[in-house]
């Protein structure tokens, strides 16, 4: 099964030829996309020259293509297979929606299909670790999770190491399944990574998708949620912390095309740069409520803290509504420094200014971090926030 809007034939320009973000052209073939340029809406924030040729194919001149280095640890009731890009079940979550994701699909030597049997219930997470291929190499891959109906599982995808990497993650969530996903980009700071993530929701399926970006030179994640039947419930949560010289982009799409589904998006980020090396982040949240989706209930929020000079955050929520018969819809986004009144209050209680700042920033992130059901990972993300804060006065 392929996306209904998959196209073929002559290459088309990204950002053109469709009426809504939900109609974004998709294909498994890189040649179906024109090479992006800086004025294209989907690419206008990221510096294309920093993508090491992933966007235009010039990576082949300097980098050796290798399979993604993937390790999967899993409980009973889970099957792991190595397949090629033509595998229909691997493709079922949907086709790539931009040229880099299609490049990854076209160029990958092999892919991974992880099947969770129906009615599987496990307290032990499925751990997937993807390591960078190192300097001089570029790795491409695809990993699809096919979750059977009424299964209840936690999926942890961790990226680590160094290199240049582009991949596609697919999540097929069966009817009545409850799935928690954690995508942890814990790269070394010399890594470039672009990830396309397609999520297909069954009837009454529940998805809790958590994203964390703390490492990497350029990291761009694009999760997309589609519903196939009523009752789907998707929550997308994210945290990110950018230092000098880092660029993180979270660009998402929630496509409500069937009745009585829910979505909630909450991302929080902080930035600290300097005059020589700017820290930059971009968050683009697209939610589409089609005329065929009465009863939709959705809200999206993005909050950003600017901690130093030399930092810039772009926050762009987009809400397209084609029917007025909905339960609720809204969005909010903020970019700014933390509240001086909170700082004054803590200092008036005898807390030194530096410690007060740390407490405020940790509290800012905890609303998202504490929703991660894996205690060890939640504590690890808290530790990373503390480590980042130590750099401010270093």
Question: Beta-strand level of the residues, as a percent range?
Answer: 35-45%
Q: Compute the gyration radius: what is it?
A: 20 Å
How is the quaternary structure best described? Answer: single chain
What low-confidence regions span 5 or more consecutive residues with pLDDT below 50? 1-17
How are helices and strands ordered from N to C?
EEEHHEEEEEEEEEEEEEEEEHHH
| Structural class based on helices, strands and sheet pairing | mainly beta
Tell me what the structure shows:
The protein is mostly beta strands. It has two domains: about 20-335, no CATH class; about 340-394, no CATH class. Helices cover about 15% and strands about 40% of the residues. It has five helices and 19 strands. The strands form two sheets. Strands 1, 3, 4, 6, 8, 10, 12, 14, 16 and 18 form a ten-stranded mixed sheet that branches. Helix 3 crosses helix 4 and helix 4 (about 355-370) packs antiparallel against helix 5. It is globular.
Provide a brief overview of the structure.
The chain has 394 residues and is mostly beta strands.
What is the topology?
Elements lengths: L63 E4 L1 E5 L4 E6 L4 H4 L7 H9 L3 E6 L9 E6 L5 E11 L4 E10 L2 E10 L4 E10 L4 E10 L4 E8 L4 E10 L5 E10 L4 E10 L5 E10 L7 E11 L7 E10 L4 E11 L6 E9 L3 H9 L4 H17 L5 H18 L2
Parallel strand pairs: 1-6, 4-6, 5-7, 6-8, 7-9, 8-10, 9-11, 10-12, 11-13, 12-14, 13-15, 14-16, 15-17, 16-18, 17-19
Antiparallel strand pairs: 2-5, 3-4
Helix pairs in contact: 3-4, 4-5
């Amino acid at each position: 099964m392929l996306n209904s809007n998959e196209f073929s034939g002559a290459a088309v320009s990204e950002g053109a030829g469709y009426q809504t973000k939900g109609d974004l052209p998709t294909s498994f073939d890189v040649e179906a996309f024109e090479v992006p340029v800086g004025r294209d809406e989907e690419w206008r924030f990221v510096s294309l020259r920093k993508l090491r040729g992933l966007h235009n194919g010039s990576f082949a001149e300097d980098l050796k293509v290798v399979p993604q280095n993937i390790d999967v640890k899993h409980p009973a009731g889970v099957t792991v297979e190595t397949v090629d890009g033509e595998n229909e079940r691997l493709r079922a979550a949907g086709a790539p929606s931009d040229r880099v994701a299609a490049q990854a699909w076209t160029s990958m030597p092999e892919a991974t299909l992880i099947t969770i049997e129906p009615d599987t219930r496990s307290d032990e997470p499925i751990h997937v670790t993807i390591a960078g291929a190192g300097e001089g190499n570029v790795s491409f891959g695809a990993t699809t999770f096919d979750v059977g109906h009424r299964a209840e599982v936690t999926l942890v995808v961790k990226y680590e190491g160094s290199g240049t990497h582009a991949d596609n993650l697919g999540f097929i969530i069966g009817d009545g399944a409850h799935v928690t996903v954690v995508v942890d980009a814990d790269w070394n700071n010399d890594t470039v990574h672009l990830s396309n993530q397609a999520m297909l929701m069954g009837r009454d399926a529940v998805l809790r998708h958590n994203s964390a970006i703390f490492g990497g030179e350029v990291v761009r994640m694009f999760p997309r949620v589609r519903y196939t039947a009523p009752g789907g419930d998707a929550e997308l949560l994210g945290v990110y912390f950018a230092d000098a010289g880092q660029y993180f982009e979270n660009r998402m799409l929630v496509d409500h095309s069937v009745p009585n589904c829910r979505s909630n998006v909450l991302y929080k980020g902080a930035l600290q740069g300097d005059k020589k090396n700017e820290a930059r982040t971009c968050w683009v949240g697209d939610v589409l409520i089609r005329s065929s989706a009465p009863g939709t209930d959705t809200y999206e929020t993005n909050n950003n803290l600017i901690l130093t000079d030399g930092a810039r955050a772009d926050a762009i929520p987009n809400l397209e509504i084609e029917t007025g018969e909905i339960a609720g819809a809204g969005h909010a986004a903020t970019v700014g420094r933390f509240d001086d009144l909170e700082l004054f209050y803590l200092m008036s209680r005898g807390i030194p200014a530096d410690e007060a700042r740390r407490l405020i920033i940790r509290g800012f992130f905890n609303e998202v971090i504490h929703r991660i059901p894996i205690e060890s990972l939640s504590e690890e993300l808290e530790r990373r926030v503390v480590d980042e804060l130590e750099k401010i006065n270093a």
